[in-house]
Amino acid sequence: MLYNITISGKWMDGSEFLSVCSSEFLDAPTRMLLLSDGSLTLLLNASLLSSVGLQRLRQEEVNLDRDMAEYIEAEAGQTATDRDVWLMNGAKRVVYANSILPTSLMRDDIYNEIARGNTPIGTLLSEQSILTRRDRLQIGRIMSVAICRELGLPDATLLWARRYRLHAEVGFKGALIEVFSPKIFEGTHGKGKDQGLT
Asked: What domains lie within the chain, and their CATH numbers?
């Protein structure tokens, strides 16, 4: 992962997250975005009413360590693509994402598209009508000075993030973490309520 992040509090499963939503002033669109089991890029397109692009920051092949292999349910030591990107709304950064994707589990065409690094994973799988599911979803608020500075936010800003496993019907799988810019949620809250997001 390119940026250091630190969890504030703890990672929460879906039920725990919903139990704190009322105190965090999170409305339905925000809750749905964080809890969604669907393509993030499609949801962002609908929320922002414009297409979402990709800025690749880093992409390299690494060997899966034991902990990550157990999490993904893959073989330790095998080659995986480790990728860091920003999902972009025009010139604005909206989501930072890190993905760990075992290459042996990818079809050649998917591997080639990911290697080019021009298309978000969700968009790539949706365009090929590949069914996916996400499990082990956890949501939390994280601290990252580097990400805050990239977003033009104060260093101490808390950011919503989620992490999960991705499975596809073609055997493709991986581990992802996504960190959301508070600016995504602007306009979905009543006056003053967006304070719960920063």
From this structure: 6-190 (3.40.1410.10)
Determine contact, residues 126/39, Cβ cutoff 8 Å: yes
pLDDT single digits (tens) 36-90: 887 888 888 888 888 889 999 999 999 999 999 999 888 899 999 999 999 999 9
Task: Report mean pLDDT in 10-residue bins for the chain, 198 residues.
Answer: 92 93 80 87 86 91 93 90 94 95 83 82 79 89 97 96 88 90 69 37
CA dihedral 27, 30, 35, 39 (to 10 degrees): 140
pTM higher than 0.85 = yes
